[in-house]
Amino acid sequence: MDYFFTEEQQMIRDTAREIAEKKIVPVRAELDEKGEFPTEIMKTCAESDLFGLYIPEEYGGFGGGIYENVIAIEELSRACIGVSVSFAGSGLGAYPILLCGSEEQKKKYLPQIASGEKLAAFGLTEANAGSDAGGVQTTARLDGNEYVLNGTKQWITNGGEAGIYTVIAITDKNKGARGASCFIVEKCTQGFSFGKKENKMGIRASATRELVFEDCRIPKENIIGKEGIGFIVAMKTLDNSRPGIAAQGVGLAAGALDAAIDYARGRIQFGKPIISIQAVQHMLANMAVQTEAARALTYAASKYIDSGAKSISKESAFCKLFATDIAMQVTTDAVQVFGGYGYMKEYPVEKMMRDAKILQIYEGTNQIQRNVIGQALIKESAKKRR
Questions:
Q1: Are 260 and 333 in contact (CB under 8 A)?
Q2: Smaller CB count within 10 Å for the chain: N or C?
Q3: Is 363 a catalytic residue?
Q4: Looking at residue 381, which CATH number applies to its domain?
């Protein structure tokens, strides 16, 4: 379908697609097998000015929004979401600064992220704080002109590779979730280290590590906003970043669909290509409809958020939930179209199916997205009755 991209949006799509086809596809199997971070591809994205798509021009960015970022993420994800999440994860780490940071913080850090000079990462998840984000135990204590951080973050995308980290920590244990704050921590800070790179089922090219804080001292001006608004910052960040996860789902589904169609055209059974068999055509038709529906919802949600709407949690959850469930379904069906070959590592759909699962888990499980949507519906219903 034609979504009537502007000339600039077409340029973004074409640039990201070229990187996907020329830089990612030839090495994606090797990156996956070795669990190797796509450093050179990230440099190519930086040279192509993709990292600043959603960052205002005054901070060195393109001046676009979530929609422009989603277009790029989708195209990179057609080739490999292990690579695309390394790109998108930098945006996740940047959003707390972009949405809630001071002017000084924006001027200092956003140009470095927009240029791709430094990747960013977001530190929220812990061993006891996954879906229950209120379980954060990492602490930050003000000591003179510095905050002292102690604790461990788990499963952080771009961990060890990023140069700039936005981290949620508790500044007042007596206030529960309202005692959380958000901080900017630079990679080279004393007392800040990283755990081993996790050995994952999918998205193996991306770097997933623990962040370890041991009496890590940062300037007090590195707090984002003020004490006690950490979870507000985190929720705003996730509301703005989840369309990017949806875009990964759309791109992955589109890539799997393309692979399944190409294979079905060339695979001969009973004397004819299997794409001529009605049962296979029906599978491909369902995959195509599901992928296009996910794309339409993701684009619509992105535009809605970019419009400046005040309440966006439900719409953000809509697209993340639907597109990632579709990615899991479409990649599973792609393996089925390939038959026994689809189970072999020599063909791309085996990796695509493994990669797809994480989309239903990170940045809020799809069960959490249903909670968000359900709670929003309850609030909307209550307002209508007043």
A1: yes
A2: C
A3: yes
A4: 1.20.140.10
pLDDT band at 384 (very low <50, low <70, confident <90, very high): confident
Q: In sequence order, which ranges of the chain are alpha helices (DSSP H)?
A: 7-19, 28-34, 39-47, 66-79, 81-100, 103-114, 230-266, 278-306, 313-338, 348-359, 366-385
* Cβ–Cβ under 8 Å, residues 207 and 37: yes
**285 plus 323 within the same structural domain:** yes
Write down the pLDDT at residue 385. Answer: 80
User: Do residues 321 and 378 share a domain?
Assistant: yes
Residues 326 and 363 in one domain: yes
Secondary structure (3-state) at 265: helix
Do 201 and 333 lie in one domain? The reply is no
Residues 249, 381, single domain; the answer is: yes
Q: Are residues 158 and 108 in the same domain?
A: no
What is the pTM assigned to this prediction?
0.96
Among 350, 343, 345, 336, CA closest to 264: 336
Cβ density class 54-66: b for 16+ within 10 Å, e for less: bbbeebbbbebbb
Number of domains in the chain: 3
Whose tokens are 């296009």? That residue is 292
195 pLDDT higher than 90: yes
Q: CATH number of the domain at 129, please.
A: 2.40.110.10
In a domain, 2, yes or no: no
In the beta sheet, which residues pair with residue 223?
Answer: 183
Task: Report the amino acid identity of residue 370.
Answer: R
Does residue 1 lie within any of the structural domains? no
Label residue 99 by pLDDT band (50, 70, 90): very high
Domain housing 304: 232-385
- d(CA 90, CA 105) in angstroms, rounded, equals 16
Active-site choice (7, 36, 363, 380)? 363
Specify the amino acid at residue 328: M
Does residue 254 share a domain with residue 315?
Answer: yes
